[in-house]
Request: fold
Amino acid sequence: MKAINSVVETKYWHLLEDGRVQCDLCPRFCKLHEGQRGLCFVRANQNSRIVLTTWGRSSGFAVDPIEKKPLNHFLPGTSVLSFGTAGCNLACKFCQNWDISKSREMDRLMDRATPEMIAKTAASLECRSVAYTYNDPVIFHEYAIDVAQACRERGIKNVSVSAGYVCEEPREEFYRYMDAANIDLKAFTDHFYRKLTGSHLQPILETLKYLKHETDVWLETTTLIIPGENDSDRELNEMTQWVVENLGKDVPMHFSAFHPDWKMQEIPSTPHETLLRARKIAQDNGVHYAYVGNVHDKAADSTWCHQCSELLIGRDWYELSDWNLTESGCCKNCGARCAGLFEGQPGKWGAKRPAVRLSE
Reply:
């Protein structure tokens, strides 16, 4: 068993002719001299190998409603134990969790926990799942997989909240242990990705197609709508048409409101009307389940039957109200199947969000 706060050797790297080591975890392909860290900050070249420096260390734990991930079609109403680490492999100028993802201070990692401790805590709190979130789980790949394995041994499901910027081989290994994923589809132009995230669009599209067509992982997407950057009718049309053509009509899409943060504090918050416009464009292009986020809108946060327009799941922020699904997840009015992972009755967790300390 690994010790808490240990440095863990990784396997996705290779030695270059000039003596540097290339990290092959994500398409950034950081090439590091001895002692250097990658852009993510948590993976480093030590003794001519790439190591993860934050195994067993977290920026904190909380119990969330699963809808906060956001996942609206995966065990609605249940609670999820959420955690992340420091660092990130993207450089989003609009990051809403910048104090964690952009951290270069190891003292941001407040909690120390083995995978067994996390799984045991989730079980004791009656959480149906554990979420790898706040920063991107791609960068703590080995730790996340170890935790996911411990959770599966207790019947606890695993949820990834990620930008999807990961190479093919580690992607396949990582999602072998996940049950649900929300992927940030941040925009639909490579210009946006290069300018505002320091990455590229195509690897994210490949991750989305991989999850939908080559795994059983339940998939939803989130787009943070930033005024003047990714909110044009043309871009939203192209994005939602691509989703329907490549992922299908049943992948839920979430359009969330931006608020000024990190290095984009001069940009105004997203108008509510913009989110509704994005939602309507998605619906007009055939998306069955389109939602708004970071604003209060019961109608646009609720799930409606794509066939008869009956209200299936009512949501008021993170509180569930109406529930009009059969035991098999079908509309009680017309019998149409609602895509997702549902149980006979929804959970009753609600909007509670208590912090949890795991350190011994």
